[in-house]
Amino acid sequence: MKMTRYDLIVIGAGPAGLSAAIVAAKAGIKPVVYDENARPGGQLFKQIHKFFGSKEHMAKVRGFRIGEQLLAEAEAAGVKVVLNATVIGLFPEKEVLVRIGDEVSHVKGDAILIATGASENMVSFRGWTLPGVMGAGAAQTLMNLHHVKPGENVLMLGTGNVGLVVSYQLLQAGCQVKAVVDAAPRIGGYGVHASKLARTGVPFYLSHTIKEAEGTDHVTGVTIAEVDEHFQFIKGTEKHIEVDTICVAVGLSPMTQLLKMSGCEMKDTRGGYLPVCDAYGQTSIPGIFAAGDVSGIEEASSAMIEGRMAGYAIAEYLGFISSRERASEEEVQKASLDALRQGMFAPENRGKKIETTEEGIRISENLLTHGFVADDEISRFPGVTRKTGIHPVMECTQNIPCNPCQDACSKGCIAIGENITALPSVISGKECIGCGMCVASCSGQAIFLEEEDVADGMGEVTIPYEFLPLPAEGDTGYGLGRDGRIVCSASVSRVRTLKAYDHTALVTLRVPMEHLHETRFYRAQ
Asked: Largest CB tally within 10 Å, which of 50, 240, 298, 346?
């Protein structure tokens, strides 16, 4: 059998694999990228939300846009991407067995990068095999790649970032999210993701899990029940919810099968069975590297940086760049990666109960247990201001690595500072012009514009809005509070949809002054 040889074989055309291949190709390497899917980009093309981080991490850019940019860059660099190609073996001497269609080929690489990502975890409960029970990622694929609604009435199990983000996207697709459920006593994902769900009226059931999925040939309902500290059901706490779809978002497992097959040293960790790698992705076998979720579950932004770091390390390993060049480039990438690994959600803080922010402010317990910051808690955070004239109100209450609001304000009204995880604050003496760029740029949809006393005891609040159909100027409806309950009548006084807002509409609501500071969403009559 004829064997083809490549400088570099990349397995997985997701954010990590493509980023590594681009770096390697620019260094003069001729890489080939194999991916078992029909289109490249990995998870990026399912991610219609805006990314966190800073400008260098492509913050406030939607995931699928980042995917488009990566593919264009890979094509320009001459990266060869082979799709519908399943790698079924990785053997000694870096020999790879790949199936393309009905043919199986042997290829050999001077270096190998494994960037196969992760697969969804599943939990078993009575009825879990019924049609209508699916992973949250599967629902996201149906919606955002194939434009198919997974169902009409959905229950989400899991409050990590995946569960929260997909729940919001289910609402955007026109589904009803009847509840978000988690056996843990606290929400696991970003508070801003939970808050934008809660203000639409989606209820959270913490310390609850699924007891039974109901139905004969498909899901027709679900019974959840409260669990104790040992995760045992508490008798008499059962609740029935009518749904036709159950989405499960209970974590991811790195797809390390090829690394194990190759003989790489592995380690059993809380995050899965992972390869032992150095800081630049090289495994215990010289010339075999790993990057992205396969080496530890993180966000796509981190995967892209890890891919670039592996790309530079591979270029040095193959002799295309010097160790000095590699060290210089790696220093920049490492600083960028370290910035994303700070704050309350840093890897070293997983599983810990954080009681105060980095600034010493007490964390909102209501946010952790109900999905929204209570009205009597919100004023303790530095971005929440009360002043005359139009001004931003930033309900960002956790130390998340993100700063696009600071960059978006041309008037310097918003400050985060050099520490990317610091809570944003409003700078006194700076005049807000109400452009709304901060509202549109906030990846967590946690910024609002308020203006008091615009007419006869009425104020105006501008909210981010990402649902269709958009309200129209003059429409009347209801202002909803942070908890999703109706707090007042509201009329739409302005709707802005500038290209610079990137599909985040700015809807300005006129509401009674006594409800201005609590109105955070709009529902038509």
From this structure: 50
Which residues on neighbouring strands pair with residue 394, listed in sequence order?
A: 447
The two beta strands, 85-91 and 153-157, are unpaired
Domains of the chain: 3-119+252-340 (3.50.50.60), 122-248 (3.50.50.60), 375-524 (no CATH)
* Torsion angles phi and psi, residue 226, rounded to 5: -75, 150
In the numeric block, which tokens belong to residue 66? 């980042």
Distance, C-alpha 216 to centroid of its chain: 34
Query: How big is the chain by its Cα radius of gyration, in Å?
Result: 24
Per-residue model confidence as pLDDT tens digits over 272-291: 899 999 999 999 999 999 99
pLDDT at 63: 95
pLDDT of residue 1: 55
CA distance 127 to 177: 20
- State which residues of the chain have pLDDT below 70: 1-2
> Whole-model pTM?
0.95
The CA distance from 478 to 224, in Å, is 31
CA–CA distance, 254 with 139 (Å, rounded to integer): 20
| Alpha-carbon separation of residue 193 from 75, 180, 201, 424 (angstroms) | 34, 12, 13, 17
Over the chain, what is the mean pLDDT? 95
Which of 435, 382, 395 lies closest to 517, judged by CA? 395
> Which of 423, 427, 439 minimizes the C-alpha distance to 373?
423
Q: Retrieve residue 267's tokens.
A: 């380690």
Whole-number Å distance between alpha carbons of 403 and 442: 8
Tokens 């003069």 belong to residue: 28
pLDDT tens string 447-501: 999 999 998 999 999 999 999 999 999 999 999 999 999 999 999 999 999 999 9
